[in-house]
Protein 1
Amino acid sequence: MQPTGRKLISPGACGLPAALIWALLSLPVMGNEQPDIVGEASDPATGSLLYLEHYYCDEDALACSVFYLRPDQSLIASKQINYQSNLQAPELVFKDYRDDREFKISPPQDPKLVFDAGFDNFVRQQWQPLADGEAIKFPFLVLDRENPIKMRAGQDPGVECENSQLCLQVRLDSWLLGALIDPIELTYDRDEQRLRRFKGLSNLKTDSGDSQKVEIHYNYRDDG
């Protein structure tokens, strides 16, 4: 559940579809170029900076490279995302440099499925119902699972939300499990429909392989 870097401005390509290879090769290389989006992930309890997310996207934001960096700028992991075939369920390659693991995912062609960073596009596709206070149910597939999880998204009643913002809560669509697992909190700009804040379980695990809760604040290159 990450920003797509779309221009409102929201390694290992062998064996991938030709369209995805082309898209990945056309992306800017991490270096001196300023990222389209920077996410700062902190520990919600202490406020200490845990890692950074740097997003580099093509002109139409249909292909993005994401680099996960330690506070000292050393590389932890990278992710290549291609939305050309499906905005809410993109093709994805994730590489973790700590243990040299790589995942390549082409989600099944289920028109209702939402996958990984495609959730950001899904929110915009469902913007009006969500803004009107409706709850939206959807199947969500995460990177390290074979089967999707039933989720629901709606406005967050537990936070003070400014008029310029849309504050959402995403949780398991199960009364029992939803009560046991903390929901994800998201804050969007209403005008530009951009993700500004994420609070919940990170898709990046700790060095020891444990799950971690984070609060991420996103800044965009063309912010005024």
Protein 2
Amino acid sequence: MVAGYSTAAAALVAFLTINGASGIPTAATIGTAVLLAIGLLLPAAGMLQLRSGQGPTARGARFGYPLQALGLVGLLFGLVLIVVTATLSGYLVGAVLIATSGVLAMSGAVLLRGYYVATAADAGLACLMSGTALIFLGAGAVVGSNIAFEYLISQVQNTVYVDAGATVSACGCVLLAYAFFVLHNRG
């Protein structure tokens, strides 16, 4: 999970360097998208792997890990939908998918928080909650900016807001990488 979130953070930083720039090779864009997909799917797979090793008494972990994993997969699909369709209806469907995924992931984070409090209370719990929130808030800012671009803001403003959203999501990825590193080593 740590490697996956670190990869997602690196992909988001790479996205910041190419967003809005002209003359970017297609390979750089595809490479960034692949890194982001790996960065979201790797932690989801790790969470499902950790879930399978939990006994029946670890209810918070048994339900928290899959909810977090579903949230990440839903986030990936929402982001793909936003990029592929690039229409108002696609943005709106992507926003609903990202919001639903955010609710799932936050529910999973709450359950995991309860599990880790019972096993090993740590400062990583705050990073778990805030990192999960930041990833989805950043993605929400991206989709909100794309919707606003259709009616209210210029291309330059859209690029700035999308970059801000990607930065917030990257910070969330770093916090989650730290949280799972600390919690897994202590729990």
Protein 3
Amino acid sequence: MELWRPVVGFEGFYEVSDLGRIKSLPRERSNGKGRWISREKILSHGVNQNGYEHVTLQVKGKSKSLRVHSIVSAAFLGERNGLDIDHIDGNKRNNRADNLQLISRRANTNKGRAGLLKKNKGSRFTGVNFDKDRGKWRAVIYIDGKTKFLGRFDSEEKAAEAYKNAIPEN
């Protein structure tokens, strides 16, 4: 059964479901020519240039465009407290509450990358570069505002493993 909750900041005007659907609630409206009661309506979602679904909410003549996953997260996961909203299955258009989680920026950046693969000229892996002077791969991580040297390694993969093991769990 679909569960509906008020859209945070738009209580009494809109609700969001755990399936990622958003509806406007019945309310009195006017257009200068008359007044009427609008019906409850499921809103259609647009998709922005980054592939995320969004909706435009209107209250008292003011419009605001919001990402659907942000609306669902606020209603079902609570305060973000500096955390990122992550789509567990990697599908930016699957905004079901059970597909969203709040995780750290580091965990979100590295999530789903087999061995923390990345695109750059020095290495295929995050936190790894080649030390030309010594002919070895070097691993470095940035934690709590400080750079921590993790060592030099014979292979790029071993350096990546050291970086992966140094990532804090939270």
Protein 4
Amino acid sequence: MPIMGVAKFERFFRLAAGVDVDKSDLKRYQDFVYDKLYDLLLIGQAHAKSNGRDVLEPQDLPITKGLQERIHEFRDLDEEIELAPILEYLAARPPLVVELSAETQDRLVLIVGGLSVALAKTFKILDPSITTPLSGHWEVATQIFDLIM
């Protein structure tokens, strides 16, 4: 599976929430992003199908107010996460029944960015004094997202 550069990954989390992550956190991060993005796409697929469409449009995705705000924060950070590795990883999982529109595909990077900002900020909410998330922090953050997504 392709991975983004470790330095870029570390810089992103520092800018987003003042959290230091390292290479050992990269796999956890990728799993988190994949799982949450796939969850959003599955619900979006259900919305598209219930509206009689075989193409998933951006309005089908369940983007909450909080996630939308994190997407805006991600834009402000001016960080880029390459779309291709995420889509390649996503393609390795069970395929969706619907196609993604070009506009939906274009928004996936922003959604991943918003999810990433939300994850970084979640670490700080769990422990305001945290500088480096431990395995337990990753587990609790993932459990929280699983409850609401």
